[in-house]
Specification:
Elements lengths: L8 H14 L3 H31 L6 H11 L5
Helix pairs in contact: 1-2
Length: about 80
Amino acid sequence: MKTAISLPNSVFHAAETLAKQLGLSRSELYTKALEVYLRRYHREAVLAKLNQVYAEDSSTVDPVMAALQSMSLLHEDW
């Protein structure tokens, strides 16, 4: 898909230089940069959600679950 964007001159020139150094077209460079950014943004969103869940969740172990876990260890060969 073709799109038009506006960039500050300094960013454009730095990107042009990097694209030449890496042997990439401008489109390839921008695509790779956006892919990296999107992966990072996704990871940060997942981490924020996990942090929210763990902040709200109690860290205590249910006594029934603890007893069941202990009973299951009796059958393990260590």
